[in-house]
Amino acid sequence: MNKNEKLNIINESKKIGILNAALKFDISTSTIKRWKSEVKIKGEGALEWGSGTQAKGNIKKFKSHDWIFKEPDDMSIEELREALKLERALKKHLVKMTKEKYFAIFNVKRMFSLKLSCLYLKVSRYGYLKWLKNEKPKHKNYNRILAFKIRCLFYLFKKRYGYNMITLFLNKYFKERLNLGLFIDIWKQWV
Quick one: CA torsion of 176, 180, 184, 186, rounded to 10 degrees? Predict the structure, then answer.
């Protein structure tokens, strides 16, 4: 949507109200409110494509990962927050085997960049990408047949039962012995 169309929607919302304009143009009310506040603060130039606050919010804060090697006294508040999140998410994987580190990187790929995760766990990006392409199973300890049985039971009982009841049914009807770790690994894969 270009700048003129956005301005037209804003003007229309002033006449008929934000809710009616949102329904008319099939846009959320929060989007129209955001456009209005951007025009009020920054002028009409803020409505150009790629210059709004939402577009800038998707840019990663840290283009350089040098802050990971800094002392805490030398870090800014944002860098300290990011370092704390990274520490909490990956600290338990520092002393593990390389493949387990790759699993950890795979699990936190939405929260942290690949480069940052690899730097922290001291593994190569190339090795991780090679593992991802060639060796990675769907999940650690993943068993397709067991996962299918769990999924069937879960939906058969209309998503009402958790681990305890589903394990009881697995033991009773399928003669499956299931431990908590394996169940959680399978559960994370599809829920």
Answer: -20
